């Protein structure tokens, strides 16, 4: 029988299989890369949470050195994400205050809950007293405490750490799905320091 090359090609289905394989290969690769990327991100997040927890536990103690703890936190995160940028925001408030609430009035002459200016309390025509408040974040105004004073405070103070980590993705998945080659995570914790000594009183200011 004579060999007919064109008929053989027409009947050959191997090429179709290669095309089909190529069609599913690309999405399959993206899917595998995506799964690995999600796993890596979960790992970095879990290491970050652990590192933040270790740091906040360390700062509850007397004589805690925040800078040593923060250096260790950065090192822990960079062990799993070497390219990581670690942004640390620390703040503290007096135990009688809390994050997200308005600074407490310590003197409210007319009991209206508002920080009022000087009034004449003894009727001599001279304004002599005004309302006062605990300036927890020491910024000179009565405000809602968001970050607190930029330190870990002292005994019995409440410390808040917010750590933002930005790092390179494990795989260049952004080339397929868009977005940045870097990704990130954020962790925040609040702890109260141990009452190892008398608490330092926050600055009291009076409205001028
Ligand atoms: Ca008042
Ligand atoms: Ca007066
Ligand atoms: Ca303030």
Description:
With 208 residues, the chain is an alpha+beta fold. It has one domain. Helices cover 35% and strands 20% of the residues. 21% of the residues are buried. The model has no long low-confidence stretch (mean pLDDT 90). The site of one calcium ion has 7 residues, from loops.
Low-pLDDT runs: none
Which small-molecule species are bound to the chains here?
Answer: calcium ion
Strand order of the largest sheet: 1-4-5
Tally of individual helices: 4
Number of strands: 6
Percentage of residues in strands: 15-25%
Give the overall shape, derived from the CA principal axes. Answer: elongated
Estimate the helix proportion, in percent: 25-40%
Protein name: TadE-like protein
InterPro entries: TadE-like_dom
Organism: Sphingomonas aerolata
Transmembrane segments: 21-43
Question: What are its keywords?
Answer:
208 residues; 3-stranded antiparallel sheet; 4 helices; 35% helix; binds calcium ion; TadE-like_dom; membrane
In short:
The strands form two sheets. Strands 1-4-5 form a three-stranded antiparallel beta sheet, with helices on one face. The protein has a three-stranded antiparallel beta sheet with strand order 2-3-6, with no helix packed on it. The chain has one domain (7-206). Helices cover 35% and strands 20% of the residues.
